[in-house]
Amino acid sequence: MPDKAIVLSSGGIDSSTAMAIAKSKGKEIYSLSFRYGQRHSIEIKASKKIAQSLGAKAHKIIDIDLRQFGGSALTDDINVPKHDTVDDIDANQIPITYVPARNTIFLSYAMAWAEVLKATSIYIGVTAVDYSGYPDCRPQFIEAFEKMANLATRTGITKEAVLKIETPLIHLSKADIIRTGVDLGVDYGLTTSCYDPDALGRSCGSCESCLHRIKGFKEAGIKDPTLYY
Amino acid sequence: MPDKAIVLSSGGIDSSTAMAIAKSKGKEIYSLSFRYGQRHSIEIKASKKIAQSLGAKAHKIIDIDLRQFGGSALTDDINVPKHDTVDDIDANQIPITYVPARNTIFLSYAMAWAEVLKATSIYIGVTAVDYSGYPDCRPQFIEAFEKMANLATRTGITKEAVLKIETPLIHLSKADIIRTGVDLGVDYGLTTSCYDPDALGRSCGSCESCLHRIKGFKEAGIKDPTLYY
After folding, report:
1. Is the ipTM of this complex over 0.85?
2. Which one-letter DSSP state was computed for residue B80?
3. What are the chain B neighbours of A97 within 8 Å (beta carbons)?
4. String of b and e for A140-163 (b: at least 16 CB within 10 Å)?
5. Residue of A60, A154, A160 to mutate for B, most B C-beta atoms under 10 A
6. How do residues B189-224 score in pLDDT, each as one tens digit?
7. What is the pLDDT of residues B20-48, one digit of tens each?
8. Which residues contact B3 (CB under 8 A, 6 or more apart)?
């Protein structure tokens, strides 16, 4: 029987590539997405298409209401900041698009599902290169989460299996991620990155997430299939 | 300004006592409860009354659907096991009432709220004495969570404030918890412990949670105000 892996999927470039990598390692894929009050809920549709295209065994969408707490431009009525280029973003500031505790909550749900399925790994597409400076994307956070997870669950007592948090993109640039995904057959036309898409699902091209995407495709020398408004 | 504390509240003896202890330390209380598909949702009503009686500044109830993953008698259509006495429960087995990742998910939400409020502590009424053998009630889990939490959040980068996970009951027996709460004015008549209450909200008296409660009141020499069916 193949090992089971939970893959956190946001319908974007990084998580889709992480899913393709898990698949290339022979894992049986259980895709997990969240409706968390994000204004860019179009990513849920993208995550469904990605899971299907990569042959996921199951795809669950969990409703969690992070708007109850507030504190982020992605969930509140705060405008998503726009910039001309990536270099205009202050790299020393945690941006207003940061959602408090988001990755911790996502990983905690993944941990619950992993325990029930007896999955041995959780894939998360975080990267410490070309990223937005979110504290919960750093390697030291992932390591601490993995340690905690193995104490939190049944396996922490029975030692039956150990849960690994896999971050295959952690040291890759956006361009490298895109090259890897293209090699593995990811259809990036199915993915979406924009924090502020229009009603037709087209991307703004000027939020930090779009800018990272555009720069990545450019550096990889690959045509960006995204429609921008 | 008083320090803010998030208190995880299930409407039971332990979390209500933890809230009273936080209050006695001068904390401003932010009570947090979860509707997680538990069959004993009467505990949500109890948690509201407790928060009110202990003067909480706010009380939030978060909907999370742990039934999507299954794997527990508290959320699935599995009968809650009944016993004659506490000694009939196999202490070396993790019981079927264990809900995978529950405390991790609860603490992750608390962490999100703490970050937004700039609260410096989260109180959780776990105890390593007279408990049900759940892996996510052990001190080593709490320590690992605290370490992870301080890396996961804005404070992990800015070093503005450190988040403490407070477990004031960790080394107390149920009887000691009850004595402490009575000293601090907790009205245990407002609390509920039963995993399998009847339609009138009365307790079964024979699930593991009721048995721990009954034993605790008996050992403390205090009258149990609970109605049993």
Report:
1. no
2. P
3. none
4. ebbebbbbbbbbbbbbbeeeebeb
5. A154
6. 999 888 888 888 899 998 888 998 999 999 999 999
7. 999 999 999 999 998 877 666 788 899 99
8. B26, B27, B28, B119, B120, B121
Q: Name residues of chain B where pLDDT drops below 50.
A: none
Task: For chain A, say whether B68 makes contact (Cβ under 8 Å).
Answer: yes
Residue B193 φ then ψ, to 5°: -120, -25
Judged by CB atoms closer than 8 Å, whether chains meet at B148 and A148 is answered as yes
Which residue, among A76, A61, A67, has the nearest Cα to A113 in the 3D structure?
A61
**pLDDT score for A3:** 94
Residues of chain A in contact with residue B95, where contact means CB-CB under 8 angstroms, are: none
Q: What angle do CA B10, B13, B19 make, to 5 degrees?
A: 70
A4-80+98-193 topology per CATH: Rossmann fold (3.40.50)
| Rounded mean pLDDT, A76-92 | 64
Domain ranges of chain A: 4-80+98-193
Give B218 to chain A, closest Cα distance, Å.
Answer: 31
CA distance B73 to chain A (A): 13
pLDDT at A219: 95
Q: What is the pLDDT of residue B6?
A: 97
Average pLDDT rounded to a whole number, residues A204-213? 89
Residue among B97, B109, B142 with most chain A CBs within 10 A, to mutate = B109
DSSP lists the bridge partners of residue B58 as B30
Reported pTM: 0.86
What class has domain B4-220? alpha beta
Residues of A in contact with B62 (CB under 8 A): 65, 68
